Amino acid sequence: MPSRPLTPPKRDKVNIKLMVLGDLRVGKTSLIQRFLRGSAFTMPKYKPTYAADFVHKNVVLRDKPRTLQIWDTSGNERQRAPDRAFFKGVDALVLVFDQRRASTFAPALDRHLDDFLAHAACPDPRLLPVVVIGNRAGEKNESEATSGTTGKQSESESEGGEREVRRSEVEAWCRGRVEGNRLFAYFEASAKEGAHVDDAFLHAANAVLDVHHGAVH
Ligand SMILES: Nc1nc2c(ncn2[C@@H]2O[C@H](COP(=O)(O)OP(=O)(O)OP(=O)(O)O)[C@@H](O)[C@H]2O)c(=O)[nH]1
Ligand SMILES: [Mg+2]
User: Fold this and answer.
1) Got the DSSP string for 108-136?
2) How far away, in angstroms, is 78 Cα from ligand 1 center?
3) How much is the pLDDT for 186?
4) Ligand 1: which residue has its CA nearest to atom 26?
5) Hey, which residues does 130 pair with through a beta bridge?
6) Cystine design at 37: which of 17, 24, 41, 73 (Cβ 3.0–4.6 Å)?
7) Is the distance from CB of 139 to CB of 193 less than 8 angstroms?
8) pLDDT tens digit string along 65-82?
9) Which residues have C-beta within 8 Å of that of residue 150, sequence separation ≥ 6?
10) Span 116-134, mean pLDDT?
């Protein structure tokens, strides 16, 4: 009689839950909408996300159809319900900061990640894929691109300012952040121009499949 394997093979993972966190106005909603709509996306006027909401996107990964459930959240943590019920069952995190505003990188990302780890009952934080997105990458400095005049800095000028966060700083942050977790990855992306947005979300989903199928320990 053939012996049964000690552990049955895991069922393939079809539904993947991604959670997008980051400070106010870093571009979380815009990145998600760019991922959903591709080249049909146009930048809407800013409308803050209230609390949390989710969208679905169907993709084919590793030759199988899968559904990504992507949770968009408010950058204002006070809007999160105290029990953080929507953190339950999250397979991977997408942490977003604005490359032109260093205040939205560390320690803001530390705060969002700590809040997640404190509430999510994550079975093993070493096996949680975390994709960091530095948004507004590679865009022209708007103040340079226009008149080049100097003077009192307006909000829009500060938003179009120089890149403030270097790749090496983010990679160093990723390496040290959760002991034993090698599943941090960094993408420089732009919701406005579309660069690397798909790469970042699909990397998160693929990393979930790697973990689920035991390719990462
Ligand atoms: N130039 C540029 N502007 C962007 C980009 N992504 C977002 N924005 C703008 O930044 C502002 C905030 O974008 P949202 O996507 O609403 O930011 P959010 O992180 O969802 O904000 P909250 O929901 O309030 O937490 C909007 O005015 C966007 O048009 C980008 O890649 N480039
Ligand atoms: Mg939003």
Assistant:
1) HHHHHHHHHHHHS--S-GGG--EEEEEES
2) 19
3) 98
4) 46
5) 93, 184
6) 41
7) yes
8) 999 999 999 999 888 877
9) none
10) 95
The domains of the chain, with CATH numbers, are 15-137+164-213 (3.40.50.300)
- The amino acid present at 193, given as its one-letter code, is E
Residue 201: what pLDDT?
Answer: 98
The CA 100 to ligand 1 mean position distance, Å, reads 12
Nearest CA to ligand 1 atom 24: 48
Query: Which atom of ligand 1 is least distant from the CA of 74?
Result: 25
Most ligand 1 atoms within 8 A of CB, residue of 46, 99, 162 to mutate: 46
Which spans in 78-196 are helix H? 108-119, 142-145, 155-159, 167-176
Report CA(192)–ligand 1 centroid distance (Å): 9
Does 24 sit in the ligand 1 pocket, CB within 6 Å? yes
